[in-house]
Amino acid sequence: MPVVAAGAMAIEAVSALGTGLLYDRWGPRTLLALPVGVAAVPALALAPELGPALVGIGLWGAATGVMDSTVKALVADVVPAARLATAYGVFAAFQGVAALAGGALAGWLVAAEDSTDLVVVVGAAQVVALVLLLLAMPRRRSPGHDG
Fold it and tell me: Which pTM does this prediction carry?
């Protein structure tokens, strides 16, 4: 298990760097794949076969890398510079509370020993996340960004 966790963290690091580079080139559209990838995580990570489970864990690592890095670039694009530190703090607070609530809900759903409910709930949450992401995207890149 420690090797799998280390692999997920390596994927996290690479995905953070890769999506950061893509964000610099293509802007917020880069993040549109995030909800799709996250929606697939529970179905794959909880699969009874090793291969799909490893892919799911890898997707989880990639999504974590994007959330810990590139999503913050979107915050920087939509918030005035004078309010950026506050915006990062609010973002981190919401992210932490959501992770706690989501982890509790996921644990409760998995304890029922039927991952179908978890897959459905995560899928529905990612549809909402995609809509919110589309609403939050700036219409154009902020000044100072070459696009």
Answer: 0.82
Burial class of residue 50 in the structure, from the number of CB atoms within 10 Å of its CB (0-12 exposed, 13-18 middle, 19+ buried): exposed
- Cβ neighbours around 131 below 10 Å, total: 11
Across 93-126, b (16+ Cβ under 10 Å) vs e yields eeeeeeeeeeeeebeebeeeeebeebbeebbebb
For helices 2-26 and 71-78, the axis angle rounded to 10 degrees is 30
Per-residue pLDDT of the chain (147 residues; tens, 9 = 90+): 889 999 999 999 999 999 999 999 999 999 999 999 999 999 999 999 999 999 999 999 999 999 888 888 989 988 999 999 999 999 999 999 999 999 999 999 988 877 899 999 999 999 999 999 899 887 655 445 544
Helix (H) or strand (E) holding 38: helix 33-45
